[in-house]
Amino acid sequence: MSVEIRRGTDRYLTRGPGFFTRHSFAFGEHYDPDNVGFGPLVCHDDHRLGAGAGFGSHPHRDLEIVTWVLSGSLVHEDSAGHSAVVTPGLVQVLSAGSGVTHSELAGPDGPVRFVQAWLTPDEVGTPPAYSLRAVELEPGRLVEVVRVGSATLRVARLGAGAAVTLPEEPRQHVFVAGGALTRSSLAEPLADGDAYRIVDRPGLSVTAAVPTELMVWTF
Questions:
Q1: Where residue 186 falls among pLDDT bands split at 50, 70, 90?
Q2: 3-state secondary structure labels for all residues of the chain
């Protein structure tokens, strides 16, 4: 049983023209053999892009790519003919399967912040697939946003002082996507960008210090 704290300020950082990204796991030039994933989660990137900036067309294969926008808008286009503007309250899932290319650019009206997770699929070489759907969050509780294979993403928006009980699954990645959690028996306060990695400690409770958004992956 364990609860590991990962501070946002300790994450690997990549900067480029008009963007910066904090990586939860080893990525690109940031190689760390002791931090390559957590269950099927192999990438959990916190991206911030300036207006019109982003990532031009690039390939993926055999990944489930889940995108959750925190603020602003993200323009998606892919080689299967899908195009969309992703905004807060929409969840995008790109199943790369046998191979797909896509681009991701901030909308022209201003910056965007989004979190993107990559997960290893249950099957490889499947046809690429795409979905975009709206999610209705209920203040003060964890709401299921998407299931990808054995993984589930839930999101909670909490008011200051509100508490939420985390799920029962044995592995949990709990990311503070905005706001902060109060000090608890688990840790000193957690701030925006901090995360818990929980193994075999089901049903823990966390409390928001200020209005807070949590992203909780369970496996």
A1: confident
A2: CEEEEECHHHCEEEEECCEEEEECCCECCECCCCCCCECCEEEEEEEEECCCCEEEEEEECCCEEEEEEEECCEEEEECCCCEEEECCCEEEEEECCCCEEEEEEECCCCCEEEEEEEECCCCCCCCCEEEEEECCCCCCCCEEEEEECCEEEEEEEECCCCEEECCCCCEEEEEEEECEECCCCCCCCEECCCEEEEECCCCCEEEECCCEEEEEEEC
